[in-house]
Amino acid sequence: MPGAVNLAALEPLPASELEGLTEEVARRLLGCTLVSRLGGAVTAGVIVETEAYGSDDPACHAFRGPTARNAAMFMAAGTLYVYRIYGVHHCANVVTGPAGVGEAVLIRALEPVRGHDAMRSRRGVEEDRMLCSGPGRLCAAMGIDVAANGSDLFTGPVTLLEAPAAPREVRVGPRVGVTKAADRQWRFCVAGSRYVSRK
DNA sequence: AGGATGATTCTCT
DNA sequence: GAGAATCATCCTT
């Protein structure tokens, strides 16, 4: 039954799950749970949509080397990279490369499983489907902003829990809103999920 | 110093 | 489906 997730039964995601090609990690993160303790509320959702941003990738923020904004991308795997986009929104990424390499997985959508009231309050909408179905939406719902940039996903306010099982079917396609390397099939969605940001 | 550009979202038609 | 909102960041003068 979707939504019936017992967070206490899930183990923290082992660091080894973040090793390997970034596009493989992006696929592997589907089904894992993202948990936030920011802003005095516990919110959580099962990851249903991700995108990979790797090295030698013109669409990746790290492509032209380190800057003040993308510094977290060059930290160790398991770092949270948060940036602001279009002035008002935020996007959250799981850093995946070894330290010194700028790679990350953008978390694009979650199925809410905990803290629905806090999410509704922060988002200003009622429907569960509208809470976390988009990278900016899920950050708003979980209280994630640039203050959490560079935090550690194993010890920080935002953490990852293992997937109880791999998704039965995964849909693959081009990344959303990306103009460079637009042919790269690095977007991954849980097939059939109502909570992906778009079909 | 100035301008173009977004890994978006919301509203309106 | 199209267009506006909105501003930090980054690249070009």
Descriptive keywords:
single chain, 199 residues, alpha+beta, 3-methyladenine DNA Glycosylase, Chain A, eight-stranded antiparallel beta sheet, 3 helices, 8 strands, 12% helix, 26% strand, globular, DNA-binding
What do these coordinates show?
By secondary structure, the protein is α+β, with helices and mostly antiparallel strands. The protein has a single domain (7-190), classed as Methylpurine-DNA glycosylase (MPG) (3-methyladenine DNA Glycosylase, Chain A, Roll). The chain has helices at residues 22-28, 116-123, 135-142; strands at 33-36, 43-53, 80-85, 89-95, 104-114, 158-161, 170-173, 187-190. Strands 1, 2, 3, 4, 5, 6, 7 and 8 form an eight-stranded antiparallel β-sheet that branches. Helix 2 (116-123) packs across helix 3 (135-142). The radius of gyration is 15 Å and the shape is globular. The two termini are 22 Å apart. 46% of the residues are buried. The model has no long low-confidence stretch (mean pLDDT 96). It binds a DNA duplex (13 and 13 nucleotides) through residues 51, 53, 59-61, 64, 67-69, 83-89, 91, 93, 106, 108, 134-137, 175-179, 197.
Percentage of residues in DSSP E strands: 25-35%
Uncertain runs: none
Assign the CATH class: Alpha Beta
| Secondary-structure-derived class | alpha+beta
The mean pLDDT is: 96
Total tally of structural domains: 1
Main β-sheet description:
8 strands, antiparallel
The share of residues in helices is 10-25%
Cα-atom radius of gyration:
15 Å
Helices, by number, come to 3
For the termini, the CA-CA separation is: 22 Å
Shape: globular
At the fourth CATH level, what is the homologous superfamily?
Answer: Methylpurine-DNA glycosylase (MPG)
CATH topology: 3-methyladenine DNA Glycosylase, Chain A
CATH architecture: Roll
* Strands, total number: 8
Q: What letter string, H or E per element, gives the SSE order?
A: HEEEEEHHEEE
